Amino acid sequence: MTEVAAPRRGRITPEREAELYGAVLDLLREVGYDSLTMDTVAARTRSSKATLYRQWGGKAELVARAMRHHKPGSIADVDTGSLRGDFDALLSQENDAALEEMSALMRALAMAMHHNPDLRRAFRELLIEPELDEFNRVLRRAVDRGEVRADNSALDYVPHMMLGSMITCAVIEDRPPTQAFLRTYLDAVVLPALGV
Fold it and tell me: Is the N or C terminus of the chain more exposed, i.e. has fewer CB atoms within 10 Å?
């Protein structure tokens, strides 16, 4: 498991940190990752560029932490007693508007990650690996409860199926994923693949 270092905090309060993260996401939506600069973040948030670099090291870490901060809750906190219930609880953490917004940001950042190793590394360390670890705990609990066989080969592909459903919804159907679509997808594809 990758150790996630905490931001280098100085005098920034949690409220100010949340405000900065919100401004970073707003700028990402407006100008995209490549055009986002620490100068524009500093100007938008009335911060000094030196403070931003001291707290986050650079643009890649700041963006990854902003995305992690605006996630709706922790996967690890979900334990309803059944895998179907856990998936339903996870989907309920975000409404359709939030899913659309997050999907658009992730698509834009996925393209930027192909060209920027610092962003790719920051996302892996600060967002992807911690999320996968938490998600795998949910799946292990389902195995421990006897809902899913431990030797089910689909267990390794559940994150791929879930992420793929979100991406292909936008690519194939030219619309963002919705809770209704994802619930239907879980019932039609993911849970049957797991033998649930």
Answer: N
